[in-house]
Design a protein that fits this description.
Structural class: mainly alpha
Number of strands: 0
Strand content: under 5%
Largest sheet: none
Number of helices: 7
Shape: globular
Length: about 190
């Protein structure tokens, strides 16, 4: 996959709902890629998945969920449910990211993670995105897409559970993102992906 495909802040979609739907599709494709990857290619494929999940969720937490709380019917309950799902998936992803692809539980955990992420994405699409599309103007959705891409450009590239609010992301996210991105560059320079 090309960088444009796997770096969400470079995606072309201008409507936030279309952008997030495209990212959900890309996440499903990356799960397939990790599952099919050879032992040699799996670490790199998994790190692309980890990065996309981390920056995607951070952007939703900073931009989409706060807006949804205000704009959609029952927004607080809808968003609280999504945040609980996100935290559960982040916990598993953190464990997997730390253990690496050679962990004997990797394949089983990947299947659990895929199930959790897929269910979460379906819930977002059904309960949050549908209402956002109905209760926002095209201009609002374009502005949110710009905000999501900006948040993704500076988001942490690894999961950090317990940071599922815009406030916590702002307080903790930027220093953590800098550390994550520095660690990624160092790992890449040293030929490591996990």
């Amino acid at each position: 996959m090309t960088d444009r495909q796997t770096v969400p802040e470079l995606m072309d979609e201008k409507d936030v709902v279309e952008l997030l739907l495209a990212q959900h599709s890309l996440i499903r494709d990356l799960f397939d890629e990790v599952e099919r990857a050879s032992a040699e290619d799996r670490p790199e494929a998994f790190q692309r998945l980890v990065r996309l999940l981390a920056v995607h969720e951070t952007a939703e937490e900073e931009i989409v969920h706060p807006y949804a709380r205000r704009k959609i019917d029952g927004g607080d309950a809808v968003v609280d449910d999504r945040l609980a799902e996100e935290n559960e998936a982040k916990q598993l992803l953190m464990t997997m990211d730390k253990a690496g692809v050679d962990d004997p539980e990797f394949t089983a955990n990947l299947a659990l993670l895929r199930g959790a992420v897929t269910a979460h994405a379906r819930s977002e699409e059904r309960y949050e995105f549908t209402q956002l599309r109905a209760r926002t103007s095209p201009a609002e959705r374009r502005a949110m897409a710009v905000g999501v891409k900006a948040a993704e450009a500076i988001a942490p590239t690894h999961p950090h559970a317990g940071v599922e609010s815009a406030t916590k992301n702002l307080l903790v996210g930027t220093p953590v993102a800098m550390m994550d991105r520095a660690r990624d560059v160092i790992r890449q320079a040293m030929g490591k992906t996990g």
